[in-house]
Write a structure and sequence with these properties.
Layout lengths: L11 E2 L7 H13 L6 H13 L5 E4 L2 H11 L7 E4 L6 H8 L3 E4 L11 H6 L5 E5 L10 H10 L3 E5 L7 E2 L2 E2 L6 E5 L12 E4 L3 H11 L3 E4 L3 E4 L10 H11 L2 H19 L3 H5 L16 E4 L6 H12 L1 E2 L11 H4 L9 H9 E4 L7 H15 L2
Parallel strand pairs: 1-14, 3-4, 3-5, 5-6, 6-9
Antiparallel strand pairs: 2-10, 7-8, 9-10, 11-12, 13-15
Helix pairs in contact: 1-8, 2-8, 3-4, 3-7, 9-14, 11-14
The structure holds pyridoxal-5'-phosphate (PLP).
Length: 381
């Protein structure tokens, strides 16, 4: 049944990139310039990102995924080593562990934050553990003091999957401005996008030089025609076209986060204090000042089938929801490694029942009101 009201309404997606006209014009200039691959725009974007992260070295790449793989390679993690991550993530976080030949280990999540439970993370550490890959789902960081206390105690490297967390904070400090390796994604749905792309925050220039080698076939150039290849690198460089799109947004990050905070607050106000008890659904943690509100997610009660909820939102209200994500250890590739149902019950439930409501930079308060009314009309039936 189509709601008569929604017949005239435009589709409301869960995410949509916003690129302003000035940026589009700058991309045109790059396309006309004669230099469209990695060049001065990438260098400028890296400098501005480094400035944003308090002066730490930053290098850009063509995805967030490869930044994590490269961080693991720089840390020397490979066959025989274990790395621990969360099952409640995009499969990239654990695929990169397999990519470098190491062994993925999972720990279950906290049902409130939906991030790694640090007690369970610590319990999963073995003598073979070499790295931790914490993920900041929806942009919400972990308890960073405790995370790094654990890493220091067991002498582990940390590759922060901060793909969703550009603009998030821990105790007033920007995520990326402290810690070990910190990886960000600029994929189309992220708060800042370069269409595809990512950056890695590193600890020192030595690591940054190694990152540059892994980024482009392991080569080093010198003089007019000096060239050598001394490590096995890949093809992961960012283009000036992508960097130009990012340069159009980097100075707006704090404004983007503030707008999303306003939208999140409006979501809570519109859902009201009775929503959770009445619907059985769980709202996100009210983590103002920590998260950048990359996603605004509900966890549906188990009595509601997610697919049919998503379909009703689409058919009756023209609202296209997402889900982020499905528990990674239950994918075929991971089942083949011995992971099975019931190992991480909280991540399994959240993976089955989460839905991502509309949340994007150009969204309005009216869009929030429309989304909340639709959710209530479906769940209160
Ligand atoms: C987006 C994302 C990635 C991967 O980023 P790409 O740029 O698409 O490679 C990894 N982890 C998480 C949690 C993400 O949201």
């Amino acid at each position: 049944m189509t709601n008569t009201l929604s017949a005239d309404l435009p589709v409301l997606p869960f995410s949509r990139p916003t690129i302003d006209e000035e940026t589009i014009a700058e991309v045109g200039n790059v396309l006309r310039s004669g230099w469209i691959t990695s060049g001065p725009k990438v260098k400028q974007f890296e400098a501005e990102l480094s400035n944003y992260f308090g002066g730490r070295p930053v290098r850009c790449f063509n995805s967030g995924t490869c930044t994590m793989e490269i961080a693991l390679r720089i840390a020397g993690i490979g066959p025989g080593d274990e790395a621990i991550t969360t099952p409640n993530t995009w499969v990239a976080s654990s695929n990169v562990i397999l990519e470098v030949g190491a062994t993925p280990v999972f720990a279950d999540i906290d049902p409130v934050t939906r991030n790694l439970d640090l007690d369970k993370l610590e319990a999963a550490i073995t003598p073979r553990t070499k790295a931790l890959i914490p993920v900041y789902i929806s942009g919400l960081p972990l308890d960073m003091d405790r995370l790094y206390a654990i890493a220091n105690k067991y002498k582990l490297r940390v590759v922060e999957d901060a793909a969703q967390a550009l603009g998030s904070h821990w105790q007033g400090k920007r995520i990326g401005s402290f810690g070990d390796f910190v990886s960000f994604s600029f994929q189309a749905n992220k708060n800042l996008t370069t269409a595809e792309g990512g950056c890695l925050v590193l600890n020192n220039e030595e690591e940054a030089t190694l990152a540059e080698k892994y980024r482009l076939q392991g080569i080093t150039r010198s003089g007019m025609d000096g060239i050598d290849c001394d490590v096995l690198g890949g093809k992961y460089n960012m283009t000036d076209i992508m960097a130009t799109i990012g340069l159009g947004q980097i100075n707006k990050i704090d404004a983007i986060t503030a707008h999303r905070e306003m939208l999140a607050q409006h979501y809570f106000d519109c859902f009201g204090p009775e929503f959770e008890a009445k619907s059985g659904a769980q709202l996100p943690m009210r983590a103002f000042g920590l998260t950048n509100w990359h996603l605004f997610q509900l966890v549906l009660p188990e009595s509601v089938e997610r697919a049919s909820f998503m379909r009703q939102m689409m058919d009756e209200h023209k609202i296209f929801l997402g889900y982020h994500y499905r528990a990674v250890h239950l994918f075929t590739l991971y089942r083949a490694l011995g992971f099975t149902d019931g190992m991480f019950p909280i991540a399994e439930r959240v993976g089955k029942q989460n839905v991502t409501l509309p949340m994007f930079n150009a969204m309005t308060k009216q869009d929030v009101e429309r989304a909340v009314e639709a959710v209530k009309s479906v769940l209160y039936k």
